[in-house]
Amino acid sequence: MKAAVWYGKRDLRVEEREEKSLKNGEVKVRVGWAGICGSDLHEYEEGPVFMPSEEKDDLTGEQTPLTMGHEFAGVVEEVGSDVKNIKVGDRVAINPTLTHGNKHEREDIYDGFSFIGLHGDGGFTKYANVPEANAYLLPESMTLQDGALVEPVAVAVQAVKEADMKFGDTVAVFGAGPIGLATVLAAKAAGATRVVALDLSEKRLEKAKEMGATEIINSGNTDPVATIRELEKDGVDVAFEVAGVEPTFKQAIDVTKARGTMAIVSIFAKSIEWNPMQLTGSGVKMTSTIAYSPTTFQQTIDLMGSGQLQARGIVTDEIQLDDIVEKGFEALSNDKSQAKILVELSGEK
Ligand SMILES: [Zn+2]
Predict the structure, then answer these.
(1) Residue 206 Cα to ligand 1 middle (Å)
(2) CA of 152 to the centre of ligand 1 (A)
(3) 306 in a structural domain
(4) What is the total count of domains within the chain?
(5) What CATH number has the domain bearing residue 167?
(6) CA distance 100 to 278
(7) Please, are residues 90 and 77 in contact by the beta-carbon 8 Å criterion?
(8) Which helix (H) or strand (E) holds 78?
(9) What is the pLDDT of residues 57-92, one digit of tens each?
(10) Together in a domain, 252 and 113
(11) What is the DSSP letter of 245?
(12) pTM over 0.85
């Protein structure tokens, strides 16, 4: 079967791979659609970041070259022995997170985690084998394309929880890439009255408006801090940092009110220079988030299924597996108006 396989930095190959046999407790998923993630792009542009290239990963037991893709949904083709709750024909979204499972889910991920599609073979292919516990049933109201968006939207839902955002809060979202757009959506769904989105790309800002942003600011043209302070004299209740660079990190604190929260959602590829007195002097609290708990993943499906979170607007292109390098990774590298690109595998609804 054809797969997009990561060999090294700027070396992603679409090639034939052996179909794997099912292990105990696994289900074989016929992949319908799979999204390209910012972390996939990191692996392509500057990897290995997470990909286990030197030795086998602890949790997956696998090593590069690996099939990428961790945001995917499909139809169950086959179930292994000991599979109890999933049957052939079920439509499922994959939670790609693998953990040791020794702790409560609130702490579990901080005890070490691996990702299906980064630390082990993933979904940019015809069939993906995953543990039963990682396959979540999709309601009839959700398409497999929606299913491929659950993972990035779950990141945003977890971010809103970690930031303790409440009904009536005012919010700023720095960065309108896929996760930033999903954060706008999640903040609105969670009761934010004002959501200001900031980015350098007009196209992405337009998308942010579609997702529910009440104001958009192009940080390339205007001073983001002054502009937000004009809207909210005391600052916003919650600022989400979803850009991952030094200027937005500092600005996100600067626009937050005393006792408000700045939440780091992005992955910082590089260290920054920063003086913690910026917190001491402002009374802003800072928190961070990574991925999502199993509960949050299920809640995200429930919220998407009921229509409370409508995420399809973050998709900017749909492409074929054969075109994944040029129209997928290269497009995301070079064209900052792109947000979420979905790869069509079986193409089933
Ligand atoms: Zn992702």
Answers:
(1) 22
(2) 5
(3) no
(4) 2
(5) 3.40.50.720
(6) 37
(7) no
(8) strand 71-79
(9) 999 999 999 999 999 999 999 999 999 999 999 999
(10) no
(11) S
(12) yes
Please give the Cα distance from 171 to 183 (Å, whole number): 10
For residues 130 and 205, membership in a common domain is answered with no
Distance from residue 93's CA to the centre of ligand 1 (Å): 13
Number of other residues whose CB lies within 10 A of the CB of residue 164: 13
Q: DSSP strand E in 147-214: where?
A: 170-174, 194-199
Q: What is the pLDDT of residues 217-226, one digit of tens each?
A: 999 999 999 9
For the stretch 193-208, pLDDT in tens is 999 999 999 999 999 9
Cα–ligand 1 centroid distance for 37 (angstroms): 4
Ligand 1: distance of its center to the CA of 151 in Å?
Answer: 6
SS3 readout for 203-234: HHHHHHHHCCCCEEEECCCCCHHHHHHHHCCC
Output the pLDDT for position 84.
95
Residue 272 CB burial class (10 angstroms; 0-12, 13-18, ≥19): exposed
Q: Residue type for 38, please?
A: G
